[in-house]
Amino acid sequence: MSHVPVSLADRIRIVLVGTQHPGNLGSAARAMRTMGLTRMVLVAPEKAPNLDTASMAAGAEALVFDAPVFPTLEAAVADCRLVLGCTARSRRIALEELSPSEAAARAVTAAAADADVALVFGRERTGLDNHELQLCHAAVHIPSDPAFSSLNLAAAVQVLAYEARVALLATAQDAAPEPDEPTEPPASHAELEGFFAQLSDTLAAIDFHKGRTPESAERKLRRIFLRAQMNAREVRLMRGVLADAQRMARLAGSSDS
Ligand code: SAH
User: Fold this and answer.
1) What is the 3-state secondary structure (H, E, C) of the chain?
2) Between 3.10.20.90, 3.40.50.170, 3.40.50.300, 3.40.1280.10, what CATH number should domain 6-175 receive?
3) What is the pLDDT of residues 24-48, one digit of tens each?
4) What is the pTM of this model?
């Protein structure tokens, strides 16, 4: 099972600014929890979390009820070294615009360098104001239909949380290879050539070519196996398969005669 180091996910906080519908707080919490993010931060919500919050959170309500509440965005992100503001509109402010996957990659790189990161989301009606966007290091825009560009707040949180999870999982896999797949170097030239020689003998033994010249098929098979970049263990496994095919061909040959 894939495992994301908790400390990296914990460096990424979802900041919800001026949220108007308590139900959206619950939906956003659920969206975060499904993707392994647990740090929700609220900035001056219009209404306190309520029963709608709990019902939309579907078990993830602790994220909202434990969320720190700040009066301003400045205060909520004061300790963050990367602040990314999600916006439904591309605004004419001098701010670099990132796609969700670019934003996630940047967030995870920063988190891996022990920086706290904020992904900031605006109000349902009016989004983030220009002052709030200026506080961000870059804007994130989900490439929605320009004629209908505004996602529901929790849906936008879901997209970013998903991208963050994908990036976190990729980092976790880079850091800890699967135990049954030790990072063996690719097989040596000689090991591969030994395999190709045995493959050639096996194809002849099982009468694969049926009178055709073997070169073309062997060239194509060679290309397939070179693309696989087998390590020494995998070459031994393939040679075991070939050895059995050769043995069966010998048995078939001796029962024919
Ligand atoms: N009418 C508002 C939309 C607010 S939707 C506006 O035009 O800004 C609530 C929040 O969800 C937004 O502030 C933003 O943080 C996020 N959001 C919605 N659609 C988005 C999109 N296409 N890309 C990035 N964030 C989006």
Assistant:
1) CCCCCHHHHHCEEEEEECCCCHHHHHHHHHHHHHCCCCEEEEECCCCCCCHHHHHHHCCCCHHHHCCCEECCHHHHCCCCCEEEEECCCCCCCCCCEECHHHHHHHHHHHHHCCCCEEEEECECCCECCHHHHHCCCEEECCCCCHHHCCCCHHHHHHHHHHHHHHHHHHHHHHHCCCCCCCCCCECCHHHHHHHHHHHHHHHHHCCCCCCCCCHHHHHHHHHHHHHCCCEHHHHHHHHHHHHHHHHHHHHHHHHHC
2) 3.40.1280.10
3) 999 999 999 999 999 999 999 999 9
4) 0.72
